[in-house]
Amino acid sequence: MLDTICFQVPVSKLEGKYAGLYFNDSRSSEWEEFTPILTQIHENLKQNGENFEIVTILLDDEESSFNDTLAKLPFLVIPFKDKSIGKLIRYFELRSFPTFVIIGSDGKTLRNNCADIIEEHGVDAWEGFPFSQEEMGILEEKAKAKLEQQTLESHLVRGEFNYVVGKDGTKIPVSDLVGKTIILYISVVWFVSWREYLQEKELPSGKIVCEDVILLFTEYGADAYPFTKERVKELHDKIENIKGWPERIKHEVHESHELLLIKCRPFSIYDCDLCEGTGDIWSYKCRECDFYLHPECALEKVDGEDMGEEDGQNAAKEEYVCDSDVCRKVE
């Protein structure tokens, strides 16, 4: 791991501590909104004597933006495009930003994602740490008590800004509104109304595109969208290409075990341990080491030798059938 001035920090520093794994992308809008709140929560917990560290898993594509963000963060950070990132994404089944996982002092996962708790309670969420059922009950009671204590002034008054502006530009003190029923209408100039959106958007025809969506989801996962005949044909053609792929291979980057051609579970993704890109549907996997290769990366070199044109043609003649998630050669 790295700290804010790029010193390497051993993972052993986290032993015996609570740890928060913060998954996000510094270019996302969620980053700008969530990170300052999380920073304040971290400071409050430290001041309260909690033995707690946050480890950020940045999913930035560019190293320059990664380094810029690292310099501003008060948290520990996993190095840029470290191979452990892909394994963490798969282990915690990352689905959205932000994701904030809580690990107990014994190394066990306490919460797979408590980002929603922080978004709901804001900085006050630190009072519910480590977000156990008992602590959450206390946090909810405190939030309920604060809600009952709120007044119109607590919502609208901030320092010297203790007024609202009338349609003629006059300043109306918030105190003059006390006792009245108030409707808050929130509008911003960059927000496009739904009517304007519908005028610019080409609406669907209303015709049924596909009646077997569940079947397509099972077969192709999220790639099946938008379920048109053209999309299904495209995916079918892609699957046809696997008939030329060998069932098992040895690869120079992972010589200790054979790699097996497998079909991935629906909606799952993996990170190729050679090119570090993501993949789905098919992979060459070492079941003993959790090692993955894209089929394209795996077949570029087999046993340290390039697959020539003749080898590729011979492989294409071989047929394979799939039983569950394993593909075997037809004898």
Automatic annotation (TrEMBL):
Keyword set includes Translocase: no
Domain Thioredoxin-like fold: 16-108
GO MF terms held by the record: protein-disulfide reductase [NAD(P)H] activity
Annotated EC: 1.8.1.8
InterPro entries, per the entry: C1-like_sf, DC1, Nucleoredoxin-like, Thioredoxin-like_fold, Thioredoxin-like_sf
Species the sequence originates in: Rhynchospora pubera
Known catalytic reactions: [protein]-dithiol + NAD(+) = [protein]-disulfide + NADH + H(+); [protein]-dithiol + NADP(+) = [protein]-disulfide + NADPH + H(+)
Keywords from the UniProt entry: NAD, Oxidoreductase, Repeat
Domain DC1: 253-298
Gene3D superfamilies, alphabetized: Glutaredoxin
Record protein name field: protein-disulfide reductase
First-tier enzyme category under EC: oxidoreductase
